[in-house]
Design goal:
This protein is an all-alpha fold. The protein has three helices and no strands. It has a domain at 38-107. The relative contact order is 0.10. This is Two-component sensor histidine kinase.
């Protein structure tokens, strides 16, 4: 039994379909990291905005409300603490430079206190 060769139209259609599949696979491989970076940047911007808001609230609120403000602002992704001694050593917060700059920009130029940020990478299961 002899098999018939595929017609030219069928061959071109299969070739185009194969090229489309390969192009989609390559673009997915290239841009999967882009999406991850965009999500991390969005989380960092949200955390910086929340930190700036908490700092402003703490500055303007009476001391008896500080624990309630801290509890309300803390979430699984971001944690706030008020202590007499800083939990972040000055040399350990260089990794949060972009987030620190964002917080400082949100607080304005007149905010002169030290801003210390410690960032930990979360590993998804």
């Amino acid at each position: 039994m002899k098999t018939r060769p595929w017609r030219l139209r069928t061959q071109i259609s299969l070739l185009v379909l194969g090229v489309i599949v390969v192009a989609q696979a390559v673009s997915l491989w290239f841009f999967v990291d882009e999406r991850t970076l965009a999500v991390q940047a969005a989380i960092g911007a949200e955390a910086a905005g929340r930190a700036a808001n908490v700092a402003q609230l703490i500055e303007g609120a009476p001391p008896e409300l500080h624990p309630q403000i801290i509890r309300a602002a803390t979430s699984p992704l971001i944690r706030f603490n008020l202590t007499e001694e800083p939990e972040v050593v000055h040399t350990d917060h260089d990794a949060g430079g972009a987030v620190e700059a964002r917080v400082r920009a949100l607080l304005g130029d007149d905010y002169s206190r030290d801003i210390r940020i410690e960032i930990h990478v979360s590993r998804s299961p």
